[in-house]
Design brief:
The chain is an alpha+beta fold. The chain folds into two domains: 2-65, no CATH class; 69-237, Trna Endonuclease, Chain: A, domain 1 (3-Layer(aba) Sandwich), CATH 3.40.1350. It is 35% helix and 20% strand. The strands form two sheets. A six-stranded mixed β-sheet has the order 1-2-3-5-6-9. A three-stranded antiparallel β-sheet has the order 4-8-7, with no helix packed on it. α1 runs parallel beside α3. The longest helix is centred in the middle third of the chain and has 16 residues, at 77-92.
Length: 240
């Protein structure tokens, strides 16, 4: 987003009335869907500094740099963490099945999310990397994977007694990363807190951030290796 802002500001700087345009833009208040970017583009289009093909090219370049930015526009946590993340994983690996009582008669909706190989219970936790020191909607705070800004992904309602394997999905605006751990590895991790709230029993939380993300390198995997990583985590939990 900083790159887009810099490009638009460079074009405004070349205008004959650049000072007037900057003053007018500064006086505007961004109210969805009218943003500072929309105002800058309109000003440039009105002065023929930006043509329609130029705008389309600028837009395509931006989307190519930020292919996952649309996921930050999901304001409802459940729409992102459950609806999108579960579908995303089952699209990557169709062998993963949505948990149900048909697959597991003892299943209740609150236990775990996915099922594999007739008995591997999987809990999915998904989060988005946003600038922890910036205010505003999620899409305005969305971070690039190359950013050095501080982020904090709080993985909540972690129930180590209800599943065998965890899949963590972390989304940056230009990258998606995946980690696979078994329940014992999560429970024993120094970053894991067994209680999310005072008096809470059976649900914990874990903060994944810039300071500790490298500590989980051994558990990181890629989409082609996702199923192998789940099976390996399960085998570590139940060695032969």
């Amino acid at each position: 987003m900083d790159k887009l802002r810099a490009r638009l500001q460079d074009l405004i700087h070349e205008l004959d009335d650049a000072d007037d345009v900057r003053a007018a833009l500064k006086s505007l208040i961004s109210v969805y869907p009218f943003s500072e970017y929309e105002a800058m583009v309109c000003a440039l289009l009105a002065r023929d500094k930006l043509t329609w093909p130029d705008y389309l090219a600028l837009r395509e370049e931006y989307l190519a740099r930020n292919p996952y930015l649309h996921l930050f526009e999901m304001s409802a946590p459940r729409a992102f963490g459950e609806t999108w993340a579960h579908r995303h994983l089952t699209d990557l690996a169709p062998e993963l099945q949505k948990a149900s009582m048909k697959l597991d008669p003892s299943y209740t909706r609150q236990q775990y999310d996915l099922w594999l190989d007739g008995g591997v219970r999987i809990e999915v936790k998904a989060s988005r990397a946003v600038d922890a020191d910036r205010d505003g909607p999620l899409y305005a705070k969305a971070l690039s994977s190359r950013s050095s800004a501080r982020f904090d992904m709080n993985l909540q309602q972690v129930k180590c007694d209800c599943c065998e394997v965890f899949i963590w999905v972390a989304v940056w605006r230009d990258r998606i990363r995946y980690w696979v751990l078994n329940a014992d590895e999560v429970a024993a991790n120094p970053c894991y807190s067994p209680r999310q709230h005072r008096g809470n029993v059976g649900e914990g939380q874990l903060h994944l951030n810039r300071e500790n993300v490298a500590d989980f390198a051994q558990y990181e995997t890629t989409p082609p290796q996702l199923l192998d990583a789940v099976r390996a985590a399960h085998e570590r939990l139940h060695p032969a």
